């Protein structure tokens, strides 16, 4: 990111009301980092309910550990749509590299918002793993 000029976007350690979609960007070398507060009302069902209780076991060949609900799936889709709206504010001249199973539907959500993707690299990842 620092050498390529990529834009890295992820959720901060804080939760918000889900109304803030603008990603504040901080320069890091040639690239930028943006932290977004996840929507508090949907986040537990999105993260624990769907991503970690359904997707994680399914993607790690542990079907006996899968548990969840339709509400968890709805929250998962709502949080992905929230992230897509926020990232779409960055413009459509980027190639979006979605780097986490927490965001599997994000590409389709971006496409529905008219984001085509062309030249730079953006990495969208869950959690504050970069400092």
Task: Describe this structure as you would to a colleague.
β4 (94-98), α3 (106-112) and β5 form a beta-alpha-beta unit. Helices cover 33% and strands 26% of the residues. The protein has helices spanning 43-59, 70-88, 106-112; strands spanning 7-16, 25-28, 31-39, 94-98, 120-125. It is globular and about 45 Å long. The protein has 131 residues and is an alpha/beta fold. The mean pLDDT is 83. It has a 5-stranded mixed β-sheet with strand order 2-3-1-5-4, covered by helices on one side. α1 packs across α2 (70-88) and α2 (70-88) packs across α3 (106-112). The chain starts with 6 loop residues before the first strand and ends in a 6-residue tail after the last strand.
Layout of secondary structure:
Layout: E1 7-16, E2 25-28, E3 31-39, H1 43-59, H2 70-88, E4 94-98, H3 106-112, E5 120-125
Parallel strand pairs: 1-3, 1-5, 4-5
Antiparallel strand pairs: 2-3
Helix pairs in contact: 1-2, 2-3
Short description:
It is built from 3 helices and 5 strands; from the N terminus they run E-E-E-H-H-E-H-E. It is an alpha/beta fold.
């Amino acid at each position: 990111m620092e050498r390529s000029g990529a834009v890295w976007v992820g959720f901060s350690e804080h939760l918000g009301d889900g109304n803030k979609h603008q990603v504040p960007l901080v320069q890091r070398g040639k690239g930028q980092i943006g932290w977004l507060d996840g929507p508090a009302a949907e986040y537990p069902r999105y993260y624990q309910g769907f991503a970690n209780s359904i997707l994680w076991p399914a993607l790690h060949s542990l079907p006996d550990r899968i548990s969840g609900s339709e509400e968890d799936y709805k929250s998962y889709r709502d949080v992905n749509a929230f992230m897509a709206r926020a990232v779409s504010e960055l413009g459509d001249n980027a190639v979006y590299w979605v780097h986490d199973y927490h965001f599997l539907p994000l590409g389709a959500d971006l496409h529905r918002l008219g984001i085509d993707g062309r030249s730079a690299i953006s990495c969208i990842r869950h959690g504050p793993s970069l400092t």
